[in-house]
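Memo to structure team: turn this sequence into structure tokens by end of day. - J.P.
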Amino acid sequence: METESFVLKPNRDLLDPNFEGYKLNLDKIAIHSKHVEEGVLQAPESSSNYSYQQVRLYALHNHLWPDPWAPDQSFYFSATGSVCQVGIGPALPAAVRSVPVLQLPASESPRPEPTHPSLSFASDRLALVSDGRGRLHLVDTGDRALSQPWQIQFSDSLLEGRGFVLQHSVLDAAGRLHVLAGHVAEGSAVPEWREQHSDDGAFVNLLTWFTFVKGGAAWRLERLRQAATASTVHYAALDAAGQALCVAVKASLAPPSAPLYVWSQTADDVTVQLSAGAGGGGGGDGETVRVVLEPHVLTVTTGGTTLLRGTLAAAIRLDESTWTNDDGRLEVVLAKVERGQVWPELLPGDGRGEQIVDPELAGEMAQRLAHLTSDAENPKPDAADAYNVAELEDCDDFPEASAALLRLDGDTHAPTHQTSLDSHQYVLTARLAAAEPPALCVRHDVDALLWQPRARDGRWYCDHVGTLNAFGYVQASKQQRKFLTCAPDMSYAVICETSRHVYIYHQPSPVCGELRNRRSGQRITEVSRQQVVSLEDSDPILGVAAAARFLLVLTASRLHALVLS
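Reply from structure team:
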């Protein structure tokens, strides 16, 4: 199956180039707190958790789970093994209420690799519960607004008793239940990984995709699929139809391999060269090779196999573009519509090619930049430095390792879509709508952009649905950040530190009354507010859940509800 490369293209209507920053708001936020007498259920710290992946999975676990079908409700596990439902009444202010709805069955025996318990909602009446010790429960919740006791419909010990964390779950149109779980395992314990990698001591992130079907009144496991990577998994979710896995990984740099194609450009055209037999389809017979040129798309197939397909960096002239096949060596010449334009890439997001810089073009570019250079080491010693490395901040740095967003087909296990995230730092994951997978939030310049994976009319894509102004820059400057999230309506974003401090960034909202800029006299119609909350208790923050009206913060001993509206 051909892998389609795509680019994350922001919707300019959702960007604010004139955003002036957040104004510190000193208004006091009403905080309603409840003492968690029984404590919060956590996996014990283990001396065997010494790899980065294990520590990351343990330390950054969010112990609060908002309900996508009722965002005003959230859940946590008490230390006694109860699943507790948390909410605030519709009339504010009101006390925080916590109601146990499920008691986890006692574990038969201690497990060697426990993780924190986790929870996932597949529908408005179906939930998945992992006890962190390898057992998965399928639960009928009934109407969760009524806080009724939950009923376990299926329970089994999976993955040989290894603890796992639930990532996402989907109930498809045919009634099949798809569950995505993740855990960290030693590479030598994964047969397929051991066969392909020589580093036996490496730890891998293992994503397990369970598919359950219901026969009569009983659920049964129909299929199990797994994907492993030694990279950090920032985002993992199933598509709404349960047909594919979407994952954002921080990929390690692989040994260099021969490029699929090489390309060069002049001021007038772009030349692409590749072997017609590169994909194993054809050789020197010109009839097996087919090149399709469109104004913005290049497609090369041979022997029924697609060698190359993607969107070009700019438009081409079809009547002046040509291609030739000489003994299996294919050369495509693309005439530029805009002559003199320099293409940064042939196919944006496709890393399989290599550019050969044309000496004539390089010389022309050097002449254009000649006025910016000087033969003297310091021609203006009295002038202030235009660029000072010491002024760079951590948030201006890009990660050294490459990153990618992939969509993997559930049947072939091959990637169908991919895009590079090298220049887009991962920020957070947010569930914006119950019927859709979680949205991925990445940095774009100083902003944080939310991308919603969607499939429509047989086409899969990522839709830019919202922008958190300047949040990409703000969150990178918080060295003690632990949890980042935003409200389902994207009205505010949150940064929680390891303890006590919570930073709330409200997106632009209308101003009540007359407000003008002192310097320019311009009337201000909207303002973005920043609020800082210092919690009374200094216990570690274990979880956070954002709703439209309030923010829930869970510590080791208390549950705080911050009323925002």
